[in-house]
Amino acid sequence: IGETHDNLEAHKVQLQVLQHLSEKYQVAIGLEMFRRSSQESLDLWNQGKLPIREFKNLFHANWGGGFGLYQPIFEFAKSRSLPLIGLKSAREVENHFRSGDPAPGNTLYPEIDDTDPYHRAFSLSAFGGHRGTAKALEKPYRMLLLWEETMAQTVAEFLRDPKNKDKKLVVLVGGFHVQYGFGIPKRAYRRIPHKYSIIQPSITEIPDNLKDREMTVEKVSIPLYSSDFAWKVEYKVPAKNKVKLGVRLAQKKEGGVLIKSVAENSNAQRAGIKTGDLLLSMDGKTLTGVEDILEQLQTKNFNDRSIFHLQRGNQMLTVEMVYKKSKL
Question: What is the full per-residue pLDDT of the chain (328 aa) written as tens digits?
Fold first, then answer.
């Protein structure tokens, strides 16, 4: 099932399909949002052994923001004990591949097929922001191939495993990776022939206030069906946080949230927060990851205040932040 990552309605479609299929079949869920290297933690979540805070931090480390978009799916999967399968390549593997080095450790790169002319034309059409020579376009295209071949290999490994012979695998990924079938679907089929269907939640009209989110794509003619099923949806995105800190954040494995940079004239700068500070708590709540801050910001309005406890070198400090509208 494809998705526009930030579209709430697309994720509702995914949830509906999962709900109906799980009434008749044993279902597992393959997720682009998690890397293969996160599988042990995903298994702990499925077993009820991973706290929600740690699961949110795992999501942020693998994918970034937007946990709330997927939360209903994760909660449903946990309530029905539906396994979650991380599909994407490990970051270390990607870094070695990007540098042209052999795969790290005992791992191997997946078999990569770069001979499909339609896949290449369609993919390069989406790299409108990467205009330049064919050589310059080749690098992002090769990385796309690594992602799709890795996800396809993970799907094939699941299907080959005898213990999964009675299960249905529902793969949730960006629509680009399944549209026309030559991304993940046919690359998985190349490894192990199997029946599959492609469902695309399809946006037919983008609201004026969201047109800035539309990708610039050069039109190419692809003589293939876009999907097996098109499910018409509206385009709705989560409400933005009203207030912003004005910082770049990074999670720390040992706890807390690291300030990577502070914007000029931001709420964080006015509060005296500096690059390198480690935020430990916000309004009395311990911070275990970036999602903790994002959640609390959803409840804030302009002129509200927050108290942060932070570590700066060997010093433990307390700062008060007043949320003002900043021109960043």
Answer: 999 999 999 999 999 999 999 999 999 999 999 999 999 999 999 999 999 888 998 998 899 889 999 999 999 999 999 999 999 999 999 999 988 888 887 778 999 999 999 999 999 888 764 455 567 788 899 999 999 999 999 999 999 999 999 999 999 999 999 999 999 999 999 999 999 999 999 998 888 888 888 777 778 889 999 999 999 999 999 887 779 999 999 888 778 999 999 999 999 999 999 999 999 999 999 998 888 898 899 889 999 999 999 999 999 999 999 999 876 5
Domain boundary among 233, 267, 297: 233
What single string gives the DSSP state of each residue in 182-215?
TTHHHHHHHHS------EEEEE----GGGGGG--
Range of the domain at 297: 247-322
CA atoms within 13 A on the CB side of 122: 22
**What is the rounded distance in angstroms from the CA atom of residue 49 to the CA atom of residue 178?**
33
The CATH number of whichever domain residue 51 belongs to comes to 3.40.50
Q: Look at residues 251, 241, 306, 297 and name the one whose alpha carbon lies nearest to residue 278.
A: 251
Residue owning tokens 């903790």: 292
- Rounded CA-CA distance 92/122 in Å is 27
As a whole number of angstroms, the distance between CA 70 and CA 65 comes to: 11
Query: Quick check: is 98 in a domain?
Result: no
Q: Does residue 64 belong to any structural domain of this protein? A: yes
pTM as predicted: 0.85
Task: Give Cβ neighbours of residue 153 (< 8 Å, ≥ 6 apart).
Answer: 110, 111, 188, 191
Give, in order, the Cα–Cα distances in Å from 102 to each of 137, 138, 147.
22, 19, 16
